[in-house]
Sequence to fold (607 residues):
Amino acid sequence: MNLLGDKNILKAKVTNIHWERINLYIDVKVDILDNNYDTSELDFYLVNGLYYSKAHFEVLSNENGVYKLYLNITNPGYNRCLARGTYNIHICCGENDYGRCVVDESIVTKMSDFSRSFLYGGRNNVYSVVFYVSDDDDNALPFVMYTMASRATSIGNLNPISLAPKEKQVATIPLIKRVIGKITKKLRKIVKKYTGETGRRKRFKFIYRMLSKGLDANGKTILFMSEQNSSITANQKAVYDRMYSRGLDKEWTILESFRSAAAERQSFKSWVALLKKMAKSNVIVLDDHAPVLDWLMLNKKTKVIQLWHAGAGFKSSGYSRWGNSGCPSPFSCHRQYTYGIAGSRRIAHFFSEVWGINTEQVLPTGMPRMDEFLDENYKKATIENLYNQFPMCKDKKVILFAPTYRGRNKAEAHYPYELIDFDALYNLCKDEYIVLFKMHPWVSMPVPIDEKYQDKFIDVGTYPNINDLFYITELLITDYSSNIFEYSLMKKPMLFFAYDEIQYSFSRGFHRDYKDSTPGKIVHTFSELLDAIQNNDFEYEKVQEYVDEHFDYIDSNASDRVIDWLILGNMPDDMKTAIDNKFDDAQKTALLDFEPEFAEELTEDFE
Fold:
């Protein structure tokens, strides 16, 4: 880089900093002092104390010289967290470096307020982003950003012995006990390293490395794998079936591995079987988070495709809820995805934020499971079967009550049935409505439907596919579930019973604004819900807005797009170019040299 900071070509001041989850936004006011230099397209880089550039800010806008900069601190472009370092912001145009940003006087005292700490790893680790003003320039207020990851340490021991003077501590604890204590501590570390979970993982890593050494980069072996489900479902099944119907099983070796390993301990035999399949696979297709890939790094020749089970709801997960309980570590399974899928380009960034990968890697193929859902023959046959199974629904308006679960995990999953006024809902139904209750699969407790309500209320919790029920549904009542994704294509109204919106947004979090994104009316009490139904007050116009935002394709070809684009590699040129350009930019950023000449002179003096 041509270092021109001493030329006073421009002055750049940080005027504001704010966060949205893991997304950092910085406003920089730029005043041009010398028009003899090119300042038409400014770039902003984070440069550490060793003069290495570690991130290239995205410029979201430039209004009257105020640049709004954006950076995802869990992924600055290379699918890893921003590395530990002390950073300045350098302003460049082409090969010219015009100097670093300073802090506007109006926010100097607020710098510490802008800092953030993100807890992870059971809250035993923290990733910190700290802002402050450097004191290395008497005439300016240089902007400094410091990042680091650290582990929990003991900062005190309330044992009375440790609080006593040192000579008394020694006198209190006999020498032999102190020696035995130290030996025991070392033995525990050794045992944990070789016989505990850490030891098991070391052995599995070794087995995988040995088995995958001969992996053929041009081979055609594909593994459909889940660590959450014991059988193939949804998006995976649609792609799997389509590969067979296209005769691709004659060209590819198709493997399967479906285990409930996320919740159940697996045998050594089960682990070895999985490792063998992964080691010989050129492509691995997932449907959810696979915990094994949090610690097992795959062979670089293996392509990983994430066919995420949810369309596009509101609940934050993965890195979009970093710093909250249950969030991933800086390196996790998500980082190994080569590609993911979404319904449209406009919503791809929701998924990339969750997974900690670049938005360009999330392709708008659509959801494969919707190929069947949108098939008219399947729809006709399913409606007939539903009316045979639930005859009371025929010639009635069906309300489907299908919220998500409450609780931190599968073991705690529940729904507060006491909030439902069954008597009032029953009276509202009259001869017009039938209500189907479809609770989240994790909610084990059935809906408490009294016998007197059973002519209008049905618990369909055991019905396998909620999408089928959408065909006969006139009104969907949900809350934060992603089931709205498929249902929106029915072009029918929705109500959102968000009785705990504030608590839910705090405990679970949203990855987008809930009020602005819901394709229907939000109610917070059951009486408000009943009033909305009674008055047909659904804010129905939001449904079409949602469809326009979330779907690039409304057809039955999503499985083919996944196969052609992601598995066979016949991706549209513009998408492939965008992916390549993103990684190229990250590589070029890392190669920029911001080292001043005096630094080289200092190095020579010490050689």
